[in-house]
Specification:
- The chain is of the alpha/beta class.
- Helix content is about 25%, strand content about 30%.
- It has a single domain, classed as Vaccinia Virus protein VP39 (Rossmann fold).
- Strand 2, helix 3 and strand 3 form a beta-alpha-beta unit.
- Helix 4 packs across helix 6.
């Protein structure tokens, strides 16, 4: 989570009555949100991770559920957070729709993902960035990480920004903020390899608002 969390928090609205952290894992973001006044419930599809969130020294209540089938009533949530998880969600369109369903009118959905452009290419030895994967197509790739001695593989699905935008539209959500955060100079001084991400965005953040109007269907008959 590191330096990305403060930039994510800049998108987050003031606390309301209820915040959901979808894909909460061991609850690092959920605890960060709780520390600034949010009443947070974590949601994770993995029972082990949901239990880790609930059993932490600074516990966050968490439920075991699929983000595409949330066990909450319509319109009861002020904020849904999805921090670095939506690109790893198989049925992401259903998960976005569920976020829209549980939000109150005017509620916000804050998302952070790996930037689709960063997924689509690679830096070459001369420092240039080569886009050598099909940006506009959907494809999967493994993302292998090692944290605290534990090796993990996430099966990530690349999607274009338009794919995310269309899913938000279908859920009755309107994008009101887009951020492409870059490392600050202090981070670059500490980790020089981060300098390249000041030229090509590594992450994408979105904040969307639930409207009071029903989503517009492309096939629906519109009045004259």
């Amino acid at each position: 989570m590191g330096a990305l969390a403060p930039q994510f928090l800049e998108l987050v609205p003031p606390p309301g009555e209820l915040t959901l952290d979808i894909g909460c894992g061991e609850s690092r973001m959920a605890r960060t949100l709780a520390a600034v006044g949010h009443r947070v419930i974590g949601v994770d599809v993995t029972e082990l991770l949901a239990r880790a969130a609930s059993d932490h020294n600074d516990p966050v209540p968490a439920v075991v559920a699929d983000g595409a089938a949330l066990p909450f009533r319509d319109g009861v949530v002020d904020l849904v957070a999805s921090f670095m998880t939506l690109m790893d969600t198989d049925d992401f369109a259903a998960a976005v729709f569920e976020a829209g369903r549980v939000l109150r009118p005017g509620g916000r959905y804050c998302i952070a993902i790996v930037h689709p452009l960063a997924e689509s290419g690679r830096f070459r030895e001369d420092g240039s960035f080569l886009v050598d994967r099909p940006y506009l197509q959907v494809w999967r790739y493994p993302d292998e990480l090692r944290r605290q001695g534990i090796e993990m593989t996430f099966h990530t699905e690349h999607r274009s920004i338009e794919s995310y935008s269309r899913a938000l539209e279908d859920a009755g959500l309107v994008i009101e903020a887009i951020r492409e955060p870059m490392p600050d100079l202090a981070m670059v001084a500490e980790r020089p390899s981060e300098e390249r991400w000041r030229r090509i965005p590594n992450f994408l953040m979105l904040r969307a608002r639930k409207t009071a109007m029903a989503p517009i269907s492309d096939t629906a008959d519109s009045p004259p």
